[in-house]
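Re: that chain you flagged

S.,

Sorry for the slow reply, it's been a week of failed gels. I finally had a moment to sit down with the sequence you sent. For the record, here it is as I used it:
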Amino acid sequence: PYSVDFTNAAWTKTDVSVAVSSGDIYEITELGSGTQTPYILDFVTSIASGAVHCISIDVKDVDRGYAFLQWTDGSNRFSINVDLSDGSVTDTDTINSPGVVGYGTIPLGDGWYRLWISATSASTSGYLVVGPSDSATPSWTAQSTPSYTISGKKIQVRYAQLEAGSVPSSYIPTSGSTVTRAAETL
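Prediction finished late last night. Pasting the structure tokens below so you have them in one place:
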């Protein structure tokens, strides 16, 4: 839900502010001082336990350089850290047994990358977590999120998605509830 409105209360904001940059593009800005763990997350219910799901989101650098994406289904977590200058996955972090099927980035042009992780869900609910990161190999917390001395830097995001399947499909916009569409055909 709210895949295109990151200011909605469905998105929990931790040590960040979120504001519309333009159109469907949102800017995530680090808040506070000292060592923090900045991110936003959306809690999703009604997913099929034991089935493969894929989370994805478009991310672009403003002045931070790196971003992370995390799949969480309860106590199982998997995170990727991405260099936003070239879209390379520079580090990963795993907690327990997240059932990862695949992960990566897709270049979209103009500095945008679609970050994605697919995993077999061990629960009927999960979290999509995304935020800035400070380096190619961040200091990961016990929650599998980067922790570093923040300085008010920013990334941009758009088009978050959680869907059945092992690879991301084209974006499906949602507002207050999930959306189902017919299978794509050639």
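What I noticed first: The mean pLDDT is 92.

Talk soon,
D.
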